[in-house]
Fold this protein.
Amino acid sequence: MPLKLNVGYSKKIGQPDYGSLGASGNVEVELDQYLVFHDLDGLHTKIKQVFVAARQAVNDELYSSENGQPASPPHNGTGGQHASNGNSNGSSGQRRARKATVSQVRAINSIADRLQLDLAKWLHEKFGLNIPADLSISDASHAIDELKALPSGSNGGHY
């Protein structure tokens, strides 16, 4: 009597504007029941092989160009959100960057206050914007890094 092994894999990745994209798959194979009673290492190897096949099929689906995603998973190792912080707006095909998070805006304001920096002027010169809430997530991250690098007590350089 054959042994049936059913392995399932499901994955969901976050998308801009609180969206998500998900896929799941199941692979069922028949194995010799001998493995259960006499070769547990062999059984574990077979389970891992089937799991890898299920995972690869799900990742292929999630990261296929048909879904508007890159052909390969992100390189950050998390398998999470893509490096792009944009969202296709559908009609024009242009990208719209996600806005800075509340925590990023709070950090930018706090660092600027500590430096006694004219934040509106600095943001306008660096990004063409007047308030940190209008920054993209990526630009806000860069702004935080730049502000942290400015010398303390120097009024933020010449700002």
Notes: Strands lie at 3-15, 19-31, 86-88, 95-97.
